[in-house]
Amino acid sequence: MRISGSSRKDGMTLYGEKYAVTVKYQRKSGEYTYSLRTQSITGAGESMKNTPLLRGLYSLWRNTGMKVALAMSVVGIVGERLTLCPKHSKRRKLGYGMVFAQYGFTAVMLYKIFGLGNDVRLFHGAEHKVINAYTLKQEEITEEEAERASRISRRCGTNYVVYVTAAGMTIGLLPLGHGLFQQLLTMGIAYEAFQMPTEKCPVVKSTLNLAGDALQRKIMTQEPHKGQLEAARKALNLLLAAEKGTLAEEEKQKYMENARERSWLDRLIG
After folding, report:
1. Please, are residues 132 and 116 in contact by the beta-carbon 8 Å criterion?
2. Beta-bridge partners for 36
3. pLDDT for 2-49, tens place per residue?
4. Which residues pair with 14 in a beta bridge?
5. How far is residue 205's CA from residue 12's CA, in Å, rounded to a whole number?
6. Which of 15, 39, 148, 233 is buried most, with the most CB atoms less than 10 Å from its CB?
């Protein structure tokens, strides 16, 4: 089974095939809480995840926050067009309002994810370490295995952003205009290149991967504290138990209830 994850300043979410587990650090109590939720895939989703160019968008579309971010991108694009209307017109004022709404949403999301400290880097490192340890073993991991694993992951979204940047610079040279279509095309092509085996294009792939690894090592991740790593390890093992169907029904219901009690902003992030 392939496991992916996303981190933020107060915890992380690990995604399996049927379930997702979120671990959140409660600063007031100093404890970690775990929540479990199901992931549903519709028939259209099954088709998209196997279709070139669309499967990259599908991997992002499964996250509620990405859906809202895409919607806000559309709001910003439409707003930019409206700002070109004549001065003092209602459409122009509406356009500026839409642009400011997009920037405001982005600022709130960035603060919710990254905050002002280094916690997101620590949780990001813990996320990578437990996923890398699981990838080698394909079963529940121990504290020692999590500790030994690398905090650098080639599957990290940081590396994908490097590919998106490279694809955007290339596609930007083509007469496609600007807007949502170009953004979606860029993300789709970047995902295909991101998933391509290094042997097919060794020079380009190696260069982009090294750039992504350097960003992870210097900026995006940090060696986690023992408590953060242990919280990530427990979240991974909880996810595996849910996926295998070995999680006791009483525990399962407790963790799913925790998921229902999460705030709307937490649910938005993932």
Report:
1. no
2. 21
3. 899 999 999 999 999 899 999 999 888 889 999 999 976 554 455 666
4. 5, 21
5. 28
6. 233
Q: Taking 60 as the threshold, does the pLDDT of residue 98 lie above it?
A: yes
pLDDT at residue 63, rounded to an integer = 64
| Residues 234, 34 contacting (CB under 8 angstroms) | yes
CA separation for the pair 236, 14 (Å, rounded): 7
pLDDT mean over 42-71: 66
The whole-number pLDDT of residue 47 equals 62
